[in-house]
Amino acid sequence: MTLWSATDAAAATGGTTQGDWDVDGFGIDSRTIRPGQMFVALKAARDGHDFVRAALDAGATAALVDRIPDGCEDAPLLVVGNVQTALEALGRAGRARTGAKVIAVTGSVGKTSTKEMLRHCLSSQGLTHAAIKSYNNHWGVPLTLAAIPVEADFAVVEIGMNHPGEIAPLTAMVAPDVAMVINVSAVHMEAFADGVPGIAREKASIFDGLVAGGTAIWNADLEVSTILARQGTVSFGRVETADWRLLDVNAGSDNTSCAASTPLGPIMFRIGAPGAHFAMNALASLAAVHAVGADVARAALRLMDWTPPEGRGQRHAVLLHPDQAPVDLIDDAYNANPASVGAALDLLAATHVPRRARRIAILGDMKELGQTGPDLHAGLAEHPAMDTIDMVHTVGPLMRRLHDAVRPDQRGHHEDDTLRLAVHLRDMVRPGDAVLVKGSLSMKMATLVEGLRALDDAKPKG
Which residues bind ATP (predicted)? Predict the structure, then answer.
């Protein structure tokens, strides 16, 4: 399926083409590029132009560049004045030419899980587009928009931020029919002098980009909900005034059952993953499904077989010994902040373990918390779920504060980096244990997930 022809891409960006080509998608990593895609030579930690030749050799159909790299003089290229500016132009053109109903999602935690819920729920009701990864920044959002098929019925775009003033221009590019703020919490605190209220104002700016007649959906349970509230919009939460109100949540061993009252009447739905923290995002997703005119009952049924994406609560059974219970590994390693760590600890506390097995938390530093960071790490020791957690292993200088604050009988290994902790993994877990791994992305906690999964006795050894 052709997504962009050379002619159309040049018209959208004002660039010039080398060769006659068409592409069916985009890639930014020469190591994972696939045939048919356009390689976008972004300039970030490294200059993507240095990898254009490798991307083309790996099968990329064309490359978006602002200079012709050595060895690419006759290559299929789209040459523009600036790659980032051209990418944004492609994103705006991709949004303008599609008739899809577009949903924009932001929040301090759970954006990607909510995006994936919406993709899953809507995909049975029409062609649904969303980025495969967590593409929510100044290059991820236009990449997502540029890749929307013209014939798509629905599109879901995740929007994130690290600093004030980032969300509004991204939302203007997205021009969503529905915009959602799923939650607001203490994340990126060092960039906001007034703390959570400032974060709430930044999140609320997602509503400024709504198309005429669009729907704003916001969480009514927060201390800063009044900052999010808009006249004539849609709220969700547990409070009595919420339009979509969560009444009951029962997290089982492999699913979560929920009951809610809605403008459509009472509904019950089941999420195909354990975790009470998924319930609110699922309810918000159903409200968004309704707002784009899709069938809520069908979407609720689809939630039954939804599972969280990798690194965001995905579970793995790790068999240490063939005749004993597996380790229940909860991979929540993609990112962390106080709210998401608290939710993950609640999930671990609610996880059933066999007799003599343990609940174990392996936690890495939570970044970008500013001066409050050390106290917020130490404060995790007071989280109610900690009463049921048997062992806490920690990684990073900030998590040293938690290591020192937990009960002596809970205090496990502490190391400053994941590689040093990884050497202890074999001794840290026993058959039947439930093990949570969580930390900020820069802590590379996924290394520990990979190390634990490698202990599986059922995997072929080579």
Answer: 107-113
Number of other CB atoms surrounding residue 145 within 10 Å: 28
112 carries a ligand binding annotation? yes
Distance of alpha carbon 271 from alpha carbon 36, whole angstroms:
36
Write out the two tokens for 60.
């990329």
Start-to-end CA distance of the chain, whole Å, equals: 39
Residue pLDDT, tens place only, 373-390: 999 999 999 999 999 999
Give, in order, the Cα–Cα distances in Å from 168 to each of 34, 203, 265, 316, 363.
Answer: 32, 9, 34, 38, 33
DSSP-assigned letter for residue 442: G
| Structure tokens, 224 | 């800063």
Q: Kindly indicate whether the domain formed by 98-305 is annotated with CATH number 3.40.1190.10.
A: yes
Stretch(es) of the chain classified as CATH 3.90.190.20:
314-453
Confidence at residue 459, expressed as pLDDT on a 0 to 100 scale: 58
Does 108 appear as a known binding residue? yes
Fold (topology level) of 314-453: Protein-Tyrosine Phosphatase; Chain A (3.90.190)
Per DSSP, what are the bridge partners of residue 315? 330
Cα(371)–Cα(263) distance, integer angstroms: 43
Residue 457 and residue 319 in contact, taking contact as beta carbons nearer than 8 Å:
yes
- Say what the pTM is: 0.84
Angle between helices 338-350 and 277-291 (to 10 degrees): 110
449 labeled part of a ligand binding site: no
Does the annotation place 215 within a ligand binding site?
no
Which CA distances in Å does 295 have to 110, 236, 273? 23, 18, 22
Q: Which residue has the tokens 């919490």?
A: 185
Annotated binding residue 213: no
Q: How large is the angle between the packed helices 111-122 and 277-291, nearest 10 degrees?
A: 50
Positions of the chain with pLDDT under 70: 188-189, 191, 457-462
The CATH class that applies to domain 4-83 reads alpha beta
Would strands 234-237 and 244-251 be described as parallel, antiparallel, or unpaired?
A: parallel
181 is in an annotated binding site: no
Angle at 198 between CA 192 and CA 201, to 5 degrees: 140
The per-residue DSSP string of 89-150 comes to HHHHHHHHH---EEEEEE-SS-HHHHHHHHHHHHTTTS-EEE-SS---STTHHHHHHHT--T
Beta bridge partners, 65, equal 79
Question: Is the four-CA dihedral 377, 382, 387, 388 of positive or negative sign?
Answer: negative
